[in-house]
Write a structure and sequence with these properties.
Helix Hairpins, Rossmann fold, 5 domains, eight-stranded mixed beta sheet, 26 strands, THDP-binding
Amino acid sequence: MATTQQTTFEKMRKDSMLDGSSAVYLESMYESYLEDPSSVTDNWRRYFDELPVDSESNGSEAHHSVVRDQFRNLGMKLQAATVSGDDAHREKQVKVLQLINSYRFLGHMKAKTNPLAEGEVVNVPELTLAYHSLSKSDLETVFNTGSLAGVDDLKLKDIVARLEGIYCDTTGAQYMYISNTEEKRWIQGELARNYTTSTFDTERRKYLLKQLVAAEGLERYLGSKYVGQKRFSLEGGDSLVPMLDELIQHTGSQGMREIVIGMAHRGRLNVLINIMGKSPAMLFNEFAGSVDNGGRSGDVKYHMGYSSDMQTKGGPVHLAMAFNPSHLEIVGPVVIGASRARQDRRDPEDARRSVMPIVIHGDAALAGQGVNMEMLNMSDTRGYHTHGTIHIVVNNQVGFTTSAIADARSTEYCTDIAKMIGSPVFHVNADDPEAVINVTRMAVDYRAKFRKDVFIDLVCYRRHGHNEADEPSATQPLMYKKIKARATAQSLYAERLIKAGVVTKEDVAGYIADYRKALEDGASTVPHLIPEGQHQQDFPINWARFGGTSWDDEVDTTITEEAYKRLGMALTTAPEGFRLNARVKAVVKKREQMANLEAPADWGFGENLAYASILDGGNPIRISGEDVGRGTFFHRHAVFHEQDTGKLHIPLEHIDNDPKSFAIIDSLLSEEAVLAFEYGYAATEADKLVIWEAQFGDFANGAQMVIDQFISSAHQKWALHCGLVMLLPHGYEGMGPEHSSARLERFMQLCAQENMQVCVPSTPAQIFHMLRRQICRDYRTPLIVMTPKSLLRHPAAVNEMADFTEHGFQNVIDEVNDMDVNKVTDVILCSGKIYYELLDRRNSEALEHVAIVRVEQLYPFPAIDLDKILAKYPNIEKHIWVQEEPFNQGAWLSIQPAIREVLGEDAKLVPVTRASMAAPAEGSHKAHVIAQEKIIVTALGLG
């Protein structure tokens, strides 16, 4: 051992009265140090830091046997005569330090966080004196506290009292699983500070009581005025209102400017009125059913969103509550996506402190819904992080009628999912509003300091059933006996303040009367609300220009010949000496030829040219999904990888010399959370082209909830615009049932009221114009695209420059061959890859009576365009719809009414498809070839 370390040890020996019998103590101290360096004093930490590192330990710590031998040898060399009583004291000192650590790890299990368990004693063996070989006779003995509370020595009874107060009162903290020592030390310090320092003066307590009066008052008022109507009451979790108010005010004082909130229906009406500042009169109209939705379907009142502006000491804060369906947790990644969009509009350093997402969970839903795992997994990734989300769990301790402990989960807490990303969890008793405020401040400060997610578990109860018409005692008789006998949070806190002399009974009655009068007047109940029109900063997103526009509004999507060549070459540019993969180099070389008009444009060139031209026009782009940088089918290559260093080069980042304008992110292996994120992003960013691509089209199945609840219906329910693009590879290539179909039929079945666009582009120019049209026209509705696979390199699926510079997207493409229109008796209508197979066979068989027309936009159906093309053929006897998909899938069943309307009642329309199937496609390649051949032969009348 080094001389300096020995000198340190000798000094510590004298200070601590160590001798040769102290090996057990030293080894125990070292174990504590390895587990948590902050658990030992600074002197011991410095000493252990100086220990030699053993090669077998991967450079992280000294080998245990080495440490043991050094401790024993040094102890013997430095042995001094001591009495046996000192030996016993040193052994107990070790046990005391272990007791302190046990409270840090397990104190939350003993904490009085459950209001329904008041008076119940939880026995945690590790938190007892006996477990650590200590007894009551040791309570008056002074021991070293380690790093407990800023004091070196205390009597054991005082140590235990501090531990109980810090870790086992109405707040329980879980954080010792965090790997970052600085985070753990910070949390320990904040918990100790909250225990020793009160920040609640008389005015703060009165204000807190008024918020509880408001939370309870609204529910009582609605319950008496609208008897039996569903409102999903907050009662039992009333402290959520002061929690959110504190969160807004505290973050506002730190420079926060925008907060995006997502929550399900429990307590939503209360938050809208008492936090967001929504007019009670507006809510009462919704209860009365007198709201005019302007021809839209609208939605129930406890799904509605809202936005407002609040004044804080640090300036105004814009609040946005996201609209939310009954699919509970799905709003979480939507909120995070919306927050990231708002952050991306700001300076990167300003973003983390200016925009914050808050997601309010239910306990059963948090533990039960897989989207939460996906959402947390993206929380620190490059394309999806938001510098930390505040997660609040309204923990009712029951899921609908499911017991929280026995059936709702397999974990100790509903928040155990937080451990996967090392986020701390602060459990707090909802009936102790002051503890709730302390925890809220701590969570906000943690997020600000460490830029990480943090969880607040607001342990409460549900005073009524799942809704107000429910009878909860039928399934939870014991729980509801306790609930019926329990006073409300407002009553308990009022009684506490009356006893403390802070308020009188008359004061409390006055608060209640004042709030009820405000409700009856229909006035806002939020004191910090900035009246509409008085807020000077432009926080909201302006979507007004998209009102009244239509999908068929014309827009010029062509580019000049100069732009075609210039931007095409820009796609091939890499830094000097940048060595590309051989296959990628060949692709880039081919693109140079395309830009120089030496070769026709293929799909990858056309798609990347669209992105380049959009960036060149001033609109930013965001593309995400699994493998989007390269493209699942090796076609996009928007990201170059240097083969020697692994460095990246993205040509599209250099189109407008602003790398922030273009983002392309290979996402985590998630569909549901990522697509929800991108929906939230696109619904917040009007002038950015936002694209999500599925690795295979059928992967979108994993995000069906997002498609059903947001993408297809958000405008009709909530009047929300969104220009999100979904690229879904689709096509029958003989690869089996799983990756053949993007389930086109599901999107077609959802189409109504011009809610979205469904397109099947068949050429590079078509994908070029379609993407440009999506961002260039003043129209924002989701675009669903069936993109190809083998067609990406099909020799016939190419275009000349004129197709990019002379005309735009064609909803319907007429026959491309020069034909005598008078000879045509059969017109085939189709979409996608099947067109090229039909074309090849038709040409090889020289069938002059068959014309092939491509319907490139399936919805909204381009009836006028189709009618104009069909009118060119005067002798049509039969119209044939041809698709690769089975009869019960694909576009046929949804599109035939629209086609028949164009053709008229007497026209003959025949479908040629695979037979109806339960699976999308055949499992064997041979069976696929046979089925595909039958479609071609039947459609062309060859068999």
